[in-house]
Amino acid sequence: MPSHIECSRPQRPFKRPIKHSLDKSDSECPHLSKRQQPIPTPPTPGHSLDKATRPSSHQTVSSTRTETSCPSKKYAPKDVNPASNHKAKKRRIDDWFAGLLPIRASSCPPRLLPSDPPSLSPGEGQRPLLEVLQGMSEPQTQRLGRGSTGSTRSSRPPTSHPDYRSILRNNGVYIDHTGAKISQELQCFLDSDILKERSASLSPQAIAEALNTAVEIADSPEGNIYDLVGTALLPIKRSDVGRGRNTPWYTDGLPRKEAFDTPLAQPKPDVHCGYLTGQRSTWTVEENAVIDHQQARRITQPAIGNCFPFFVFEMKSEAMGGSIWQAENQAAGSGACCVSAMRWLFREAYPSEDQSVVDSIAFSACVTHREVVLHVHHYSVAEDRYYMSSIGTFQTMRDVQACNNIVKNIFEHGLGTRQRKTRDALKQLYPFPKHWRKTRSARMMELGVLGADNEEVATDRSKRTEYES
């Protein structure tokens, strides 16, 4: 039989074996993704083999297809488990984070390590650091009392400092607990006008209300001590009085000794009473022009709420650590500021006359839930000192009537004789003094107030214009 008949269409019988071979290879090899399949190894050329060792066509096709579908062992990945890959990556990231240096927040204090001092060039940064360390190691009492070697003139110590009484004294302000520094003239006035009894007595209901309020605020913070204001103990809520509250004062009228370097603390009384300003004011236009003048404004109106204050209050909560001692330190500065303002006014209005000690006095009250301590503030010309003299201590549980009498007498004097003398002095200052003309009142310019002083200013301006032309 001819040989070409034996090999007719040899490919067809091998379809099924080839598929079987491929299925077998696929089952033995792991399934690889498209990116993980390596390049197949090319088959070895068959022309270099003998005829005896050359595989048959069936074996050649089968081996070729098997090699194509199943890569060799050297290209197989070592780990194809996604979970293990994730753990390995996480481990590498954790190791990288562990090698980073920790970052300190900007609010953290500087890290000072004795074993690793900062590298500085000779003389760089050493002097400021030394000064800071010396200032930290120095006691606070020495820092407040020292002279110009280490402190500035603008630094103001707190009133709670143990040495603040010495600072008051060195600036010419003295606290007189016994009232021994009250002059005979002032004592006569106090006995006749301030310490006198009043004909009208308080009702039992008003006294009981003040007592209950004092009991309720015994364990309260300082803000609740204000509840005593308006009761029969402290009847200061009046429509004819200008009240200010807890605002800083200008320090222009604060006593100051140039020989002593440390100034007094800026006044900031809890409550201060004076004369009305603004729409409710009873001053005339001319009087307001003097009060609002740039030369006088920071003295006549040291704070918001009134002008020429004459009664200041300092409230303290014993439950929060407050004390009458600290309240007196605060009231000493604000009371002296009130006296200084009135002395300035009378000195400007009557430069050639001696002032009476009574005309410039002011009052203060240091208040807790337990007691009210009243003081009169006055100036001694002979000693050149401001005094804060005690005129009475009143228990909130049994002295409501006596305290009520004195508080009402103080307002009666402030709104009567004191305000009348203040008006007379303001009238003496309008037209403005010659040394005030360089600084005119902005309020007066807005109102268009005309007077002798304004006419002279207008004449001078017209003459200057003619000369320049």
UniProtKB/TrEMBL annotation:
Feature: compositional bias, Polar residues: 54-71
Pfam families: DUF7924
Record field: compositional bias (Basic and acidic residues): 20-31
InterPro entries to which the protein is assigned, alphabetical: DUF7924
Biased composition (Low complexity): 145-158
Listed Pro residues bias regions: 111-120
Protein name: DUF7924 domain-containing protein
Region called Disordered, residue ranges: 1-88, 107-126, 136-167
Domain DUF7924: 260-426
